Amino acid sequence: xxxxxxxxxxxxxxxxxxxxxxxQKDSAKEETVASVETPATSDVPAxxxxxxxxxxxxxxxxxxxxxxxxxxxxxxxxxxVLIDFWASWCPPCRAENPNLVSTYNQFKNSEFKVGKGFTxxxxxxxxxxxxxxxxxxMDNLSWASHVSDLKGWESEPAAMYQxxxxxxxxxxxxxxxxxxxxxxxxxxxxxxxxxLK
Length: 197
Prior knowledge:
- By secondary structure, the chain is α+β, with helices and mostly antiparallel strands.
- The protein has 5 helices and 12 strands.
- Strands 2-12-11-5-8-9 form a 6-stranded mixed beta sheet, covered by helices on one side. Strands 1-10 form a two-stranded antiparallel ribbon.
- Helix 2 runs parallel beside helix 5.
């Protein structure tokens, strides 16, 4: 019995370190962390293009919350935002959630060089609403911006952001400019600490 528990625990942590993938061969791919500082300006110059690279303006997302309300990513303008792609059925996502909760609680009211306050825009790749809602409650994901089109790997926002494994994330500044991608565990807190005024 003990050997079974050890084996199950080992498999969970091995799986958690990789991520859930839409394509099996992609799941072993190492996610890279990239970051850049952007000047603290009230407006981004018009020449900043929309895209997924560091320094690009993040593409707009507008999908339904659990109660059917449309939430635009741009409605969070002025704050530092982590766009977090996850799902209730993804063990690595669920393992990362306590880190997100802790980081959110630590920085949600902070003053940054490139934004005021920190929040999370959670995009779920769930297909079943009850499981999505259950995971939000069970993991204490207390921020207000949770969206999903309940299409699983056919998720429109995931396709827009070229997400092929989860958890996957984009950190954007108060102007919607991408500062970093795929920050995990303490990396997110370190980056936010660097961005403090």
